[in-house]
Design goal:
Belongs to the HAD-like hydrolase superfamily. MasA/MtnC family. Its cofactor is Mg(2+). One of its GO terms (biological process) is L-methionine salvage from methylthioadenosine. InterPro entries: Enolase-ppase_E1, HAD-like_sf, HAD_sf. The protein contains eight helices and eight strands. It has a six-stranded parallel sheet, with helices on both faces. Strands 1-8 form a two-stranded parallel sheet. The longest helix has 21 residues. Helix 8 links the parallel strand 5 and strand 6. Helix 2 runs antiparallel to helix 4 and helix 4 runs parallel beside helix 6. By secondary structure, it is of the alpha/beta class. The protein folds into two domains: 145 residues, 3-Layer(aba) Sandwich (Rossmann fold), CATH 3.40.50.1000; 73 residues, Transcription Termination Factor Rho, Rna-binding Domain, Chain A, Domain 1. The structure holds the ligand CSCCC(=O)C(=O)COP(=O)(O)O and magnesium ion (MG). Magnesium ion binds next to loops.
Length: 238
């Protein structure tokens, strides 16, 4: 195994896709379900004010007169992290998760580290482009024997707090948690997110998973597995 990277954070902040969960899995399983079920979901709920608002936000963001469902499906094909798409995806997934047709996914090394850190008392927070509804469905419905792992997390942020590639989002997150940005350790596979977080004063770690084709970036400390990380200040001395 590579030499350990040692940090002493008060709080850990985690990206999901590409970092603790597989991006190819999300695309093949969750996005496929969304592509197949989004048109029917919207057609059955044209009078729902939440759906209407998402459709009008979609048209406003697209800036054209195309059918907003077509726009959403186009964004999905590009994996564009557009807020209206990210909002409706969780709503469409509810039925898939509740009926067991959908399951979440975690990399084994990430799940083991998060369990270890949670047991040591480390507050673990999520910041993902997926809506908080999507995140909680995902963590509540991991395959057996893992099951529901929502207990691991102290809380969740989505892009309601700001875009993941914008620096002020990370300052807002630190303020909302009540932690010094310098003590908030952020893990992500996306260098643009790491640049934004670094500018806000957060220490960062680049998660480079060969199976996802993530490229190294000399600007950041990197890991291929969460087993390479040591949090030297946890558990706290009594
Ligand atoms: C489990 S949330 C669904 C994943 C998703 O749609 C997404 O966009 C995740 O992006 P991330 O910011 O976690 O890389
Ligand atoms: Mg990611």
């Amino acid at each position: 195994m590579a030499a350990k990277l040692t940090f002493a954070p008060d709080v850990v902040l985690l990206d999901i896709e590409g970092t603790i969960a597989s991006q190819p899995y999300v695309t093949a399983v969750l996005y496929s379900y969304l592509r197949d079920n989004l048109p029917g979901y919207v057609a059955a709920r044209r009078d729902d004010p939440v759906v209407q608002e998402i459709l009008s936000d979609t048209q406003a963001l697209a800036g054209d007169d195309r059918d907003p469902v077509e726009t959403l499906l186009g964004w999905l094909a590009e994996d564009r992290k557009a807020p209206p798409l990210k909002k409706i995806q969780g709503m469409v997934w509810v039925d898939g998760f509740e009926t067991g047709r959908l399951k979440g996914h975690m990399y084994d090394d990430a799940l083991a580290a998060l369990k270890r850190w949670h047991a040591a008392g480390v507050p673990l927070w999520i910041f993902s482009s997926g809506s908080v509804l999507s995140q909680t469905l995902f963590f509540a419905n991991q395959p057996e024997p893992t099951g529901d792992i929502r207990f691991l997390f102290s809380g969740h942020f989505d892009t309601d707090i700001g875009a993941k590639v914008e620096t002020p989002s990370y300052g807002r997150i630190a303020a909302a948690i009540g932690v010094d940005p310098a003590k908030l350790l952020f893990f992500s596979d996306n260098p643009r997110e790491l640049v934004a977080a670094t500018a806000a004063g957060l220490p960062v770690v680049h998660v480079v998973r060969a199976e996802e084709g993530t490229a190294s970036d000399p600007r950041f400390p990197e890991i291929a597995s969460f087993a390479e990380v040591e949090l030297s200040n946890w558990p706290k001395a009594a």
